[in-house]
Amino acid sequence: MTGKEWALITFTILAQMSVGAFVVLGIVHFFAARKAGDEQADRLSDMALLAIGPVLVLGLLASFGHLGNPVNAPKAISNLASSWLSREIFSSVTFAVLGAAFALMQWRKIATPALRNAIAWLAALVGLFLVFSMSQVYMLQTQPAWDTFATPVQFFATTFLLGSLAIGSAFVANYAYLKGKDPDCAEAQCSLVRVALKWIALASIVILGVEMISLPLQLSLLASSPSAVAQASAALLFSQFAGLFAVRLVLVFLGAGLLALFVYRYASQPGSESLMGTLAYSAFALVLFSEVVGRFLFYATHLRIGL
Amino acid sequence: MAKQLGFYFDSSACTGCKACAIACKDRSSLPVGTNWRHITDYGGGGWVPDPNHPDLLIANNIYVYSLSTSCMHCEDPACVNVCPTTAMYKRDDGIVLVDASKCIGCRYCEWACPYGAPQFSEEKGVMTKCDFCQDLQAQGLDPACVDACPMRALEFGELDELRAKYGDVQAVDPLPDPNITHPSFVMTPHKNSQPVGSGNGKILTVSGKV
Question: Which of A136, A235, A267, B52 is the most buried (most CB within 10 A)?
Answer without folding.
Answer: A267
